[in-house]
Write a structure and sequence with these properties.
CATH class of one domain: Mainly Alpha
Distance between the termini: 53 Å
Helix content: 55-70%
Largest sheet: none
Number of strands: 0
Radius of gyration: 19 Å
CATH superfamily of one domain: lambda repressor-like DNA-binding domains
Strand content: under 5%
Number of helices: 6
CATH architecture of one domain: Orthogonal Bundle
CATH topology of one domain: 434 Repressor (Amino-terminal Domain)
Length: 106
């Protein structure tokens, strides 16, 4: 059995814990997700402003709280696909169109 004190990996017998993976190799994946959420939020904010909606207007249209909309736009919320679909419909677009806008331009 591996001595935990000598092992560089935390957890029993040197098996890495989820927290350790997130702090090491998993952090790249986590940062990619955060980037995607920020990009999605930016696209939602731009479309909302194109339609001259306030965050409150958008929140009412998709039956969410204004602070939740704010969190989505800032990329700090992780909305479900259903929630994103509701937001897309409130922004008078399809979910597919909303996602396409997050992709880099060719």
């Amino acid at each position: 059995m591996i001595d935990q004190k000598k092992s560089k990996l935390p957890g029993p017998a040197g098996i890495p814990t989820l927290a350790a993976r997130l702090m090491t190799g998993g952090s790249k994946k986590k940062s990619a997700i955060k980037f995607s959420l920020r990009k999605l939020g930016l696209v939602i904010r731009q479309r909302r402003q194109e339609l001259a909606f306030s965050q409150e207007d958008l929140a009412v249209r998709c039956r969410l709280h204004r602070t939740y909309i704010s969190g989505i736009e800032r990329g700090v919320r992780n909305p479900t696909i259903t929630c994103i679909d509701d937001v897309a419909r409130a922004l008078e677009m399809t979910l597919t169109d909303l996602v396409k806008r997050t992709e880099p331009q060719k």
